[in-house]
Write a structure and sequence with these properties.
This is NTP transferase domain-containing protein. The chain is an alpha/beta fold. The chain contains 7 helices and 10 strands. It starts with 5 loop residues before the first strand and ends with a helix.
Length: 195
């Protein structure tokens, strides 16, 4: 299994209502957050990157247009994050060995992604979740054979939680010793205290 077989789905369709401004365009290490995410994935060797857009899709599409990523529009983005996960998974071009699912407001540096891929390649668990000081973080890396399960997620069953609960005994927690995996930029305080 090589990095070329890992696909990544970046969820960037939400309203950013709690932040009060479009989170994907917030500056992060000198560039828009959505651009930072793409560059980290590219640096980690992820070839297929699917950007799921919804709210202000045209604006975000312009930012990501110079990159070799697939942008798809989730016409049901108002229904919640699960609809974006299903849209992204359904747009993958092949059957990858692994599927990263990332939210645009959860920036993670490339070396963590690389560690996760390497761990995944060697141990081949159903799910890899990074952890820091015993706390679970993100992103989550799923075996490609869980594609069908990912296509059935919905808001009623708490999205990815159902898949994680179903395969609870097949999860590998990877200690990355970096608090970046806990970042979740939902509100202005989250952003201004971390940036």
């Amino acid at each position: 299994m090589s990095k070329e077989h890992i696909s990544a789905i970046v969820l960037a369709a939400g309203f950013s209502s709690r932040m009060g401004t479009l989170k994907a365009l917030l500056p992060w290490q000198g560039i828009p957050l959505i651009q930072y995410q793409m560059e980290q994935l590219k640096n980690a060797g992820i070839v297929e990157i699917i950007m799921v857009l919804g709210h202000k899709a045209d604006e975000l599409a312009q930012v990501i247009s110079p990159y070799d990523v697939k942008s798809v529009f989730n016409e049901h983005y108002r229904d919640g994050k699960s609809s974006s996960i299903k849209k992204g998974v359904s747009c993958m071009t092949d059957n990858p060995s692994g599927i990263f699912i990332l939210a645009v407001d959860q920036p993670v540096p490339s070396f963590i992604l690389q560690k996760m891929v390497e761990h995944f390649r060697i141990d081949q668990p159903s799910i890899v979740i990074p952890s820091y000081q015993g706390k679970r973080g993100h992103p989550i890396l799923f075996q490609g054979n869980l594609k069908e399960e990912l296509l059935t997620v919905n808001e009623q069953s708490k999205g990815l939680r159902k898949v994680i609960q179903t395969y609870h005994d097949e999860i590998s927690y990877l200690d990355v010793r970096d608090p970046a995996i806990l970042l979740n930029l939902n509100e202005p305080n989250d952003y201004f205290h971390k940036n």
